[in-house]
Each structure stands twice: as structure tokens, then as C-alpha cells.
Amino acid sequence: MKRNRKIGQRRKDRKERAKGLEAIDQALLAGEAHEENDDEQELASLALLLRDHQHQEREAPTDEFRQKMEALAEGGLKESDKSEGEQQGPGVVGRFLRAGGSLLDGFWARRGLALGGAATVLIALAVTVAVLQDGDGNGTVGPVSDSSVKKKSGPEQSLGRSSGEGKSEFAPGETDDSARLIAPEPPVPDTDIAPGEGQRRVERSAELTLEVEKNRIEDVANDVIRVSDRNRGIVISSNISTGKDKAGEATFDLRVPQEKLPKVLRELSELGDVVVRTQSGLDITQSFVTTRERLQDARAERKSLLKQLPNALTLEKAEEIKRRLRSVTSRVGSLKSQLRTLRNRTDYVRIDVTLQAGNGGSGTKDAFSDSLDFVVGVLNFGIRVFSVLLVFGIIIAAIVVPARWVRNRRRDKALE
Amino acid sequence: MALRIPGKKEEEEQLDFTGLFKSSFDDLFAYLASLLKDAAAAEEVTAQAFERAYSKRHRYRARRGSARAWLFGIARNTALVELRRRKRQAALADEPVDDRGEGTQHRAEDSLRWSVVRSALEGIPTREREIIVLKFGCDLSNREIANVVGKSESNVGTMLYRTMQKLRESCNEAQ
Known about the structure:
Radius of gyration of chain B: 18 Å
Largest interface: A-B, 57 and 69 residues
Helix content of chain B: 55-70%
Radius of gyration of chain A: 45 Å
Order of helices and strands of chain A: HHHHHHEEHEEHEHHEH
Strand content of chain A: 5-15%
Largest sheet of chain A: 6 strands, mixed
Structural class of chain B: mainly alpha
Shape of chain A: elongated
Oligomer: heterodimer
Shape of chain B: globular
Number of strands of chain B: 0
Helix content of chain A: 55-70%
Structural class of chain A: alpha/beta
Distance between the termini of chain A: 40 Å
Strand order of the largest sheet of chain A: 1-5-2-6-4-3
Distance between the termini of chain B: 63 Å
Number of helices of chain B: 8
């Protein structure tokens, strides 16, 4: 009940206020007050009284000041219109009379704002590009299988392809009783085991199939080799076949340092349309550790035998020690070779690159597909840029809005 | 330095600055004099206001309000800066005296009613007095006043109405 009364009263007040203001405006417009309502009539006549006396009593500028300002307004802000005294005049009036002063303020203010806006956009673009860039080369186009790391257990592994150095077959431990005196090998520095070998050893491989224009197979093939060379890679094998009747194809077997894999894949992907790109990994840490431990054991055994040899009491004993020495030396060599092979497998990545001739995207379907990809790409980029700009906008608004409020409050306070 | 606006010509500017100056100069000066209560300061601030308005004339947009309101807004902000500067400085030995009253003695005799209204005006807050000056001394509409003081039109209307009611009551009490 009370609330309804309040609402009713407020409505009434609002109505009265509106009528009162209308009466004031009508009186000012007409120059006289003719209101039916007494209150409105009083307001209207008071308004006229205020206007008349405000105009009569208000402060007027001096003639000198008026003339100066009028001269400027008519002549415009030109250097030639000013007298020397005016140019040198201190204070704001002098400044107003000097050409360019106010213009300069506006000029730099506008440029500063434009520069600030451009800087904001550039920062937003830079952040977006940094986010988009995929450092580990996992960004793909086309059917791609996820890179996976398969862990293989068991101490004994098939070594597969090897670099061809030394023996690649594992010689199982043997206790051959026939031993020949073999000059002991010089102690091998422990450089075979690189520092930090407690980390995982993963054998990585990648496969990349690119579609290129038929008449560009050879050029792109050369580019593949250049990419490999540039990244300290090795071309193990390459095969290029082109011809009149042939579609054209090129295959490469590359080895690149593991740390260069993302960069190499990225550069190779740019050479053509990526059809297939796969990466896989095989964790051979166990094999590596096992082989290393066996090598250490073999070395220890050899060392022990070498110590025993001078102390052999009989010829037979000495012969036996020599025979065992020969065997363990052979084993050490074999294990060192295995370790070297394992290290090479993990330090270098095998990349199989295939170039196949395509139509070069000349068909309508390809053109449409390319256009769609482009539009989607632009859209994605635009969304990212928008997101970054939105964040910047929110940050700027969070600073500017309160600052403006504070500024307005300070100004109003000056009136108090 | 010659005045040069890259890519702009006088005739392309939407704001008729010269016309605005001629139509607003007296009103603006009177308004600033009422705020600052000092003719010398009013001259300086008037010149400052026109200087700033000229430099910002490209920023004026008709859809935001009339040119007069825009100019008065600039002048008001300039005057408030001056008032703030005064407050920050040490108190002057002699505060600026509002000597407008002296002039009226030489004009037509004041009616009793006007004397009462004038006294009542002295007693109302500066903000409300400012609105009275803008409305009746400078002939600005409520919307223009709202643009100048940075409030809504409705707010200005309410303040104006209440002030007028106060003045009316003062008159009625005096009678």
C-alpha cells in the first residue's frame, strides 16, 4: 500500500516536473508567460525574469579583447596576420594568436592515437602468430597418424637397419675355453657413453608424401636435398623417375639430426601439398641401457683377466686366460658397435619423403577446395586476432573507463 | 608555421567555426566569468577554449550534440582546470570579487522580486547556479546543458526544475 502510494506520488511529481519545464521553455520561446496553472505561470514568469536579468547583468568582454578575438576569427590562424607583439605575447592569448600552436597539438594527438592503435594491432598480430606457430612440427595437413612412441621391452632387440659400421649382430655371451694371447686393447675412454645418458632414447621416424606439379618434380627433388643439407642431414638414398608417359615420382631416404626434425618437416611440407605426414617413435631406452651395462660388464671382465694373466702359475692357466681374453675382447667390440648403432638410431631421424605428381590443383574442384581452405584459414586467423584484440580492448577499457570517471569527478569537485 | 591541415580544406569542414565564434563569444565569456568570478581569468580561459575548440574541430560530430554545446563543454573543462589550479595554489590574499553587482546599480532599477531571486541564487549550490546561467544566461536547451555538464537530459531537467522551485519559494516567502 505504502509502496503504491510512493509510486503514485513519484508519477505525479514527474508529471508536474514535465509540465513545469514545458512551461519554462514555452515562456522563453514566446517571450511571455500565459499558463493556466498558477504554479506553471509562476515558473514561466520567473524564467523570463531570470533570462532578462541574466542577460543584462552578465559580464561582458572588454573591447580590446573582443577586437582581438574577432580579428582572429575573421582572418584565420595565419602567421602573417599576427603582429610581433602578439607572437611574443605570453599567456594563452598569445599562443592562440601564434599559428600552428593549436594545430600542432591536434596533429600529434591524432597521430599519437593512430600510432597507439597501430601498435596495439601489431602486438595482437605478433601474439597471434606466435601462438599459431607450432614449434614441434606437429601441425599437419591431410591424413596424418598421431605420432606415437612404442616401448619395447626385453633386453635383446633386432637392430634393423644399421649404419653399416662394425658388426651388427649380437654375439651372445660365450665362455670359449680356447683363448689366444691377444694384446690387450688400449683402455677405451668412457666416451662411448655420452653425458646425460640417463635420458630416454627414442628412435624416431617420419614419412612425408607431397603432391607437386608434374613438371616440377625434379625442382622439388633438388629442394628436398637442399633442405636436408641445410639442416646437417644425410641423403641415404634417392630415386627420381620422370618421363613422358610416367606420372613422375621421387623418393628419398633421409637422416636428419633429431633436434632438427620439426624444422625439416616444416620446410619439406612447404615444398608441396602434403598428402600424408606421419611420425612415429620407438623407445629403445631399455635396449640401450642393457647394451651399455653389458659393455661395462665385459670391460670389467677383461680388466680382471688382464690382471690375472701375469699371475698365472702354469702355462695351461695362462692359455686359458688368454683364450677368455680373446672372447671377451671380441664381445666388447661387438657391444661397442651395438651401442654406436643404437645411438645413431636415436640421434638421427629417418625421414621417408615421397614426391608424387599431381594435377597442380588446376581442376575446378581443387580451385574450390583451395578457396575454401583459404577462407577457413583467414577466418581462423581472424578469430585468433579478434580474441587477442578483445583481451587488449578489455584491458584498455579497464584502464580508460575508471580513469575517465576519476577525471570527471575531479572536474566536478572543482566546482565545489 | 603556416596553418596547414593535411588533406583537408576549409570548405570541407562541417563545423563553421567562424559562425560559431560569432554566435557564442559573448555568451561563452559571460558563462566563464560567472564560473571564475574574474574577468581576466575569463578572458584567458575564453581564448584557451576557442584555441582548443579550433584544434579539435575535426573531432566534432553533429550527432553527439550541437556545436554550441560542444564548445561550451570544452570551455567548462578548461575553466574547471583553472579552478582546480587555484585550489591547489596557496590561498590568495584577495579572492576574486564578483563585481557584477556594481554594474547593476547603474542600470535600470532592480525590481524587488529580482533582488530576492538574486539573493536566492547566491545561496544555491554552484552546480545548480551553473545550470541557471547556461539555461537563462546562455540560452542553451536542456539537452545542450546535459552535453556541457556531462549529465543526462533528464537529470538536468530535474535539477533545473528543483532550482526553479527553490527560487519560486524564496520569492513567495519574501512576499
